[in-house]
Amino acid sequence: MEASFTEAYELHVDVIYRFILRLLGDPTDAEDMTAETFLRAYQSWSELLDPASVRAWLFRIAYNGCIDLMRQRQRYGTIPLDITTVDEMTQVFTSPATSMETPLKGLIRSESAEFLQAALLQLRPIDRTVLVLGELEGTPNREIAEIIQRSETAVKSLRQRARKALRDEVLRLLKQRNTSLKDLF
């Protein structure tokens, strides 16, 4: 058991951390929730029926933990993002600059990612989840359905609505900042 759990941990810890960070928006919370996710997984390892679905199982544990934390925060208030969180989130949302990239393009990409992450963090948790899994992690709808315990058809609808909600939120933030999409991208 320990060998297979260790393998699962090593294989999935980074993607689970990124997923949680994108949902919660805070690196410290993401580290804590990642540890909590793998602790819960270790404690329930014998209940895993299909070792082939370990990735979806881990995502479901992480998702449920994040939802619980967000609900708790709604009751007791939230902690605003600080600049270090924004910087770290920007790194998570952008890939490293290539040697062919100019400093201006790197700055634009970084600013665009910061804007997108701010918009993403304003979405409902379920919308955030399907966007992060589907659009950023490339998770198939079938696996997303397993993680959030909905049908594939529901996931397709959720993804469509989440994309629209993200687009609307980006436009709202742009309007608030008096910026246009051309200026951002």
Please give the largest β-sheet: none
Q: What is the averaged pLDDT score?
A: 81
Secondary-structure-based class equals: mainly alpha
Radius of gyration from CA coordinates: 17 Å
* Cα shape: globular
Please tally the β strands and state the result: 0
The unreliable regions are 79-90, 94-100
Give a structural overview:
- The chain is mostly helical and 185 residues long.
- It has one domain (2-184).
- Helix content is 77%, strand content 0%.
- It has helices spanning 2-24, 27-43, 54-76, 83-93, 103-121, 125-136, 141-148, 152-177, 181-184.
- The longest helix has 26 residues, at 152-177.
- The chain starts with a helix and ends with a helix.
Q: What labels would you give this structure?
A:
about 0% strand, mainly alpha
Summarize the structure.
It contains 9 helices and no strands. With 185 residues, it is mostly helical.
List the helices and strands and how they pair.
Elements (H helix, E strand, L loop, with lengths): L1 H23 L2 H17 L10 H23 L6 H11 L9 H19 L3 H12 L4 H8 L3 H26 L3 H4 L1
Helix pairs in contact: 1-2, 1-3, 2-3, 3-7, 4-5, 5-8, 6-8, 7-8
